[in-house]
Specification:
20 strands, 3 domains, four-stranded mixed β-sheet, alpha/beta, binds guanosine-5'-diphosphate, Adenylosuccinate Synthetase, Chain A, domain 3, binds magnesium ion, ten-stranded mixed β-sheet, 11 helices, Adenylosuccinate Synthetase, subunit A, domain 2, Adenylosuccinate Synthetase, Chain A, domain 1, binds 6-O-phosphoryl inosine monophosphate, single chain
């Protein structure tokens, strides 16, 4: 059996939820590896819309085991709300489908307070304000609270005291308040605790069809993204293995999800960003507003320089190209294949870690638009667009998505 790894190759919101839900028709297990409720993964099917923040995008399919890996940082209030909403919308109890790794970290009010303070300073990154950065920080400092500690109240209290002393000595939220709240959550969280690494390892051995779900996008990776305007986890393929606790075994199909244009939320460099009516049109037609924060997404043309970098970092074996329908009504479509850097040189490789990217200007190739398409044979200009991506990134496009619904998907 093949393990599918599906991850975003841009700055997030590439349509991972849509594509993963589509691919889940064949999967029996979906595993999230990193991030937390900074993610917003949308699924449209049977006339309903679901937006998932923590729960893997396999949950809409009955019988799919959905696991949250050790690499994640989890807000239990968000998880509780998400489970309640999905239970009602799906009309079934989903608790037994969900497994939470003992090693996932818990986001606490102190993390959120710290982030609020930092983001209102003079050096914000435009985060989702979900406490993600501070939670990864306390994990790296070895002060954090793991999901597994909920089953060990004495250990939990001791670690809460250490954590408060290190990040929130002046907070009005006391250790007792958080301890009591966590003990209330423990009643439903502890039964969901799972050895995610072992479960995935055994499932792979037994031939179960598994999908590893990436969150955010490669260009937001904390090591390789456009630092400091990145998230706090490793969103690259290697981060997915680490976040789940398994290694590669050579049977993986790695699908990179790529929007037919580019968007970004939050701050940071974005060479192909459009500030004109074309950018507005993409935002309107593509409904480019954040699934988590509702913020308008910055929009621009597809950037092959950045995409080649993401292909290199992720080792993808194919691309799923999404939101192709959003470009249906354009006479001309631009695509960027190199930049002029801050010193006036033409470059076709992404600056390492995006340093100097803010001074890079895109050089565009102009292509003819395909002007409307939904099914049947692909129009020639669209074939040209796809071929150019394949040639310049040296990877095939295997899926195209022509709308938000599960059915609006074409396998090439
Ligand atoms: P994710 O974070 O990568 O899962 O992406 P989001 O769900 O945050 O944002 C993608 C948005 O585009 C969602 O509203 C999807 O419903 C929508 N979407 C996904 N694929 C397509 C597509 O092919 N066409 C259109 N028009 N919308 C799509
Ligand atoms: P999905 O999984 C788009 C961005 C934020 C901000 C930066 C840091 O839906 O694609 P954080 O709260 O993580 O510390 O914010 O990262 N960001 C995302 N942008 N999609 C996401 O997730 C994102 N998750 C984080 O906007 O710029
Ligand atoms: Mg999203």
């Amino acid at each position: 059996m093949t393990t599918i790894i599906a991850l975003g190759l841009q700055w997030g919101d590439e349509g991972k939820g849509k594509v993963i839900d589509y691919l889940c028709e064949k999967a029996q297990m979906v595993v999230r590896a990193c991030g937390g409720a900074n993610a917003g993964h949308s699924i449209h099917t049977d006339g309903r819309k679901y937006v998932l923040h923590l729960i893997p995008s396999g949950i809409v399919h009955e019988g799919v085991r959905c696991l949250l890996g050790s690499g994640m940082v989890i807000s239990l209030s968000s998880l509780e709300k998400e489970i309640a909403g999905l239970t009602e919308a799906l009309g079934r109890n989903i608790n037994e489908s969900i497994g939470i790794s003992h090693g996932a970290h818990i986001i606490l009010p102190w993390h959120s307070e710290l982030e609020q303070m930092r983001e209102s300073s003079s050096k914000p990154v435009g985060s989702t304000l979900r406490g993600i950065g501070p939670a990864y920080e306390t994990r790296a400092s070895r002060f954090g609270i793991t999901a597994g500690m909920l089953a060990h109240p004495d250990m939990l209290r001791k670690n809460l005291e250490i954590l408060r002393g290190s990040i929130a000595p002046d907070s009005t939220v006391s250790v007792d308040m958080i301890f009591d709240e966590l003990m209330n959550y423990a009643a439903w969280v502890v039964p969901m605790l799972a050895d995610v690494s072992l479960e995935v390892f055994n499932a792979r051995k037994n031939g179960v069809e598994i999908l590893f779900e990436g969150a955010q996008g490669i260009l937001l990776d904390v090591f390789h993204g456009t630092f400091p305007y990145v998230t706090s986890s490793n969103t690259v393929t290697g981060g997915i293995y680490a976040g789940i606790g398994v290694g590669p075994n050579g049977d993986e199909k790695i699908i990179g999800i790529v929007k037919a244009y580019t968007t970004r939320v939050g701050l940071g460099p974005f060479p192909t960003e459009l500030f004109d009516a074309t950018g507005e049109k993409i935002r309107d037609v593509g409904k480019e507003f954040g699934a988590t924060t509702g913020r308008p997404r910055r929009c621009g043309w597809l950037d092959l320089v950045a995409l080649r970098y993401a292909v290199r970092l992720s080792g993808v074996t194919s691309i799923a190209l999404t939101k192709v329908d959003v470009l249906n009504d354009f006479e001309e479509i631009m695509i960027c294949d190199s930049y002029i850097d801050g010193e006036g040189h033409e470059i076709s490789e992404f600056p390492p870690s995006g340093i100097g990217l803010e001074n890079c200007k895109p050089i565009y190739t102009k292509l003819k638009g395909w002007k409307s398409f939904s099914s049947g044979a692909l129009p020639l200009p669209l074939i040209d667009y796809i071929r150019l991506i394949e040639e310049r990134c040296d990877v095939e496009v295997s899926i195209i998505s022509m709308g938000p619904d599960r059915r609006d998907t074409i396998e090439l």
